[in-house]
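Reading is simple: each integer encodes one residue's backbone shape. An example follows:

___
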Amino acid sequence: MLKPEECVLVVVDIQGGLAGIMEQSEALHQTVLKLIQGLRLFEIPTLWLEQLPQKLGKTSPMLSEELIKTCSPISKQHFSGWNCHDFREQLQQSKRKQIILVGIEAHICVYQTCLDLVKNGFEPHIVVDAVSSRTAENKRIGIKMMQERGAHITNMESLLFELQHEASGERFKQLLRLIK
């Protein structure tokens, strides 16, 4: 089971024009936004990656406006976030091993980041409705490859309610308002 004190949200490269041409882009953005807001209720830290933002553009405004409240973007040039010193250092300093992984593209940057996380002793949880690729087939293949290499597969609602554990309290009420 996921434990809030063991989790970190990692947002991968939802930026520039590429974010707008993802399969079901609007649904992806809405799900990631709700996830960011929901995880904040559990005080789960976020690491926010951007792939070559000077070339590909910044993170989508609706997400960056929410992310900037608690963290700053980490620029990277490798497909895997693990190869970025700042990301790796911040993740290791968190001393948390359960990684909630979202972003684009499922079969490239999310996939390669996931593999490196697994290789380095982390437990990635892929939120399937919060990852995408340009085609549904590439997304499907990316998720399958990550699962075959040790990632856990979940979705936004399952993840939030797994963290919540019980159907009571103010946080539960806030989660219900958020997902409806």
